Amino acid sequence: MKLIIAVIQDKDSNRLTDALGQGNFKTTKLATTGGFLKEGNTTLMIGCEDQYVDDALDIIRDNCSKREQMVAPISPMGGNADSYIPKPVKVEVGGATVFILPIESFVQF
Amino acid sequence: MKLIIAVIQDKDSNRLTDALGQGNFKTTKLATTGGFLKEGNTTLMIGCEDQYVDDALDIIRDNCSKREQMVAPISPMGGNADSYIPKPVKVEVGGATVFILPIESFVQF
Amino acid sequence: MKLIIAVIQDKDSNRLTDALGQGNFKTTKLATTGGFLKEGNTTLMIGCEDQYVDDALDIIRDNCSKREQMVAPISPMGGNADSYIPKPVKVEVGGATVFILPIESFVQF
Ligand code: NI
Ligand code: NI
Ligand code: NI
After folding, report:
1. Per-residue pLDDT reduced to its tens digit, C16-66
2. HSE-up of residue A3 (Cα within 13 Å, Cβ side)
3. pLDDT tens, position by position, B8-56
4. Which element (helix H / strand E) includes A22?
5. Which ligand ends up closest to the CA of A40?
6. Is the Cβ of A32 closer than 8 Å to some Cβ of chain B?
7. What fold does the segment set B2-74+85-102 form as a domain?
8. Which segments does the entry list as coiled coil (chains A, B, C) (predicted)?
9. How far away, in angstroms, is C5 Cα from ligand 1 center?
10. Containing H/E element for A9?
């Protein structure tokens, strides 16, 4: 049995949890950084049998890979807001750091 | 030596930490979800010798098992508050997800 | 390969992360307790080859060991603030709890 620890971006968290659930993986979600005040990380722990580790990693890759996204920049403070036309910028979002650990046992009470 | 990672409900956290301390287990408490703004999980990490793992699991089971609790519902907004008699409802609280991992060493500075 | 899980004080977090980065260690920072509302812990996860574990532990010890610090106490509420001369008190700060775990693999997406 293995424990998969995946540190992902908050914004990918619900999609990944749903996808893992559809694949019959049980996930335990740890606290995220800063709640609604600040974008942060979510840590998921997934206990699974050895033969399903690759499937879980596939699901993580499909839902959390680094990718580029167009984002509307914050309009500058002060300045002439009327004449300011926000130009979307490319930012990199997503990404996952994943550790696979051997596990002795897994219990639920 | 083993590392026990226990994800439990916030509300069981202090009771469990106290009980583990009385059993001479050293616990390290990770962040909980959302602070006072939202009920969340607490993750405890417990490093212990192999022969004490069962004792630790007993303490976790005794303090965190799933159980039913009667809770007074929130009174509905608007409506006639005077004539509203809140009827307690049963909810399931508690529960623990526990991973037991082999560990190479444990250090404190 | 090993996974080092280090639970340290928030206040040592940036210094340690910088020092580990200078040593070419990749760190993953988990959520801290309570955000800006409350001093808390930070958990760092460091995946590294076996031969570098001692180096990582040295860096953690150098940046997070328990030490004494003089702190100006909060002035008492009420009372005569004009005549109150705060006397710095010694408090213990820092400290690290570190678990070293065997790891099967480490992936980044
Ligand atoms: Ni968040
Ligand atoms: Ni909480
Ligand atoms: Ni903090």
Report:
1. 999 999 999 988 887 655 444 455 788 899 999 999 999 999 999 999 988
2. 26
3. 988 898 999 999 999 999 888 876 554 444 557 788 999 999 999 999 9
4. helix A10-22
5. 1
6. yes
7. Alpha-Beta Plaits (3.30.70)
8. none
9. 21
10. strand A2-9
